[in-house]
Amino acid sequence: MRIATLSNAAVVHTRRWVETFRARGHEVQVWSLEAPPPGFATHALPAWPLPGFARYPLAAGPLARALDRWAPDLVDAHFVPNYGLLGALVNRHPLAVTAWGSDLLITGPRDAFQRARARFVLRRADAVIADSDNLAAAARALGAPAVRVHAIPWGVDRARFTPAPTRTRGLIASTRLHEPIYDLDTVIDGVAPLLARLPQLRLVIAGDGRLRGALEARARLRLPAGRYEFTGRLAPDAMAALLARAEIFLSASHSDSTSVSLLEAMASGAVPVVSDLEGNREWVTEGAGARLFPPGSPAGLTSALERALSAPAWLDQARDRNLGVIAERGDAALNFARIESVFLGLARARPGAES
Which end of the chain is more exposed for a tag (fewer CB within 10 A), N or C? Predict the structure, then answer.
C-alpha cells in the first residue's frame, strides 16, 4: 500500500508512526511544513510566515499536485486542525484522519470557528483514528459519523519498554514535554516536600520544550541541589532505560487521550502517579495500577506520591497489574495491525482499486 502521510515531521510520534508502517511492508512518503530531524526524509511543503489557520491551507495546492504525481492508495493526515484540514482541502480519497488528543479535547470545542473547522475535517474523513474512548466520543460529538470512528490506542513497543532486573529505589521520572498542557510546575512543586524530607528520593525530568528554562529556574528554587536532573530529549532506548529503572512515573497533564508516555511507563514497571483524567482512567484508576490526583494540585500530587511510596507491596501489585493490561490491550504490534486493517479496507474499497 502507498501511504501519503501528512504530519508534523519534527514530532517524534510522526517518525514512529511512519517507521512502523514501513516496517510492515508499506511504501510511506511524508509531507510536512515542519523540518524533520536528521535521518528522516520528508517532502517539504511551503511554510509561509502566517498564523496556522492560513499557513496550512496555503499548502493545499502544492500538496495536491504532489499527490497527483505519486498517486497514493491512502492519504493519512494527523492532528485535525492542521494536517487534517490540509487533507480535507486536497479532497483526495480515501482519507484517514488521526486525532492526537488536544486537537479534539481542547481545541475542537473552544469556539464556533474551531468547531466548524473540526466538523469540516471529520465529516470528510473516510476513517477517524482515535487512541482512546474519550477521544473517539469527542470526534463523534464534533460530527464524525460513528461508523467511521475507530478507537485504537497506538500502544507501546513491548520489546523496548520492559522492566529492568533491578529498580532504583526512590527514582521518580517525568517524561512529558515542557509545554503548558503538561504542567511540570505542579510536578516540581508537588515533589519538593518529599525530596526535602526523604533523602533517598531523586527526580529525573526528561524531555524538552518551550518552558524548559523557566522549569529549570523553578527547580533551582524549589528542589534540593543534586537531587534532580533535567536530561533533555532522550532517544527511545535511553527513555526505555530510564523508565525500566524508575520506581514512579509522574504526569500532571491537564488533558490527555491515551498517553503514550503512560503506556511506556506501565510496560516498564514504573508505577504511575498521574492526574485524574478520563484518558488516564481508561488504563489506571486510583489504587488499581496508579495513584491519582486532581489536575493542577501540587498538594494532591504530594499526597498521591506519598501514598505510592509508603506501600511497597502495593507498588509490586500495581506493576504486575499494569504489565497485564499492556499485554492485553496496549501492545503496539497488535494495535498497529488493527489500524493497518482499517487502512487496507479503505484502500481496497477505493474506485479503481485492484480486487
Answer: C
